[in-house]
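explain this:
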Amino acid sequence: MPCLLLRNSKLVKTVRFKGPDYIGDPVNAVKIYNDKEVDELIFLDITATVEEKQPNFKTIGEIASECFMPMTYGGGIRSTDDMRRIYNLGVEKIAINSFAVENPDIIRKASSFFGSQSVLVAIDVKKRLMGGYEVFTQSAKKGTRLDPVDWAKRAEALGAGEILLTSIDRDGTYEGYDTELIRKVATSVSIPIIACGGAGRIEDFALAVEAGASACAAGSMVVYQGKGRGVLINFPSQKEMRAILP
């Protein structure tokens, strides 16, 4: 599924969570993905939390009104009231990240109010220089000293229905998913894992699924025409997907 980044209501793409490049209008992108029969869309506002802004409800509503497929939104969410308002705009799932680390009980409250199937916890992860992994928040600006496996287990126990697991080191690199990270987290929880960060070819999806991912999200691969980074909203065909996935 495409994982699309928003900055000031514009579509952008990063590399390792840095240097956001302008891609275009998110609503126009949605229209193209509708035509390509994409299964699901993820939109993440990468500045709302860092700048301590509320979600841009107007933009979210405009995007959701064009989506023919289920949509997940994350960014700037700090209360169940924010969530309720976003759900009422037509969004099926909420992704919570930084605020969930700061206030883990929001996961329990959200899953209790709206159902676990509607609550996705996003976990952004970097490799440590001396080995192992660490969870980062605030668009990869803040280390938490949390181990992703431990945090994933806790999120599941609190009621999270899915985990969006993103490798910060692989983001926008076309180097393939961090299958070691996927395997570590996927074998520690029973809820679905969406792998994100690093997809560069369709075969990477199969490798992520083999490592334990239930679904795969892609960014650069579905907004650029190859590594030259010329903008081209695209998505593999159903035939291509069936050829590499079990």
Residues 15 and 172 are 4 Å apart (CA to CA).
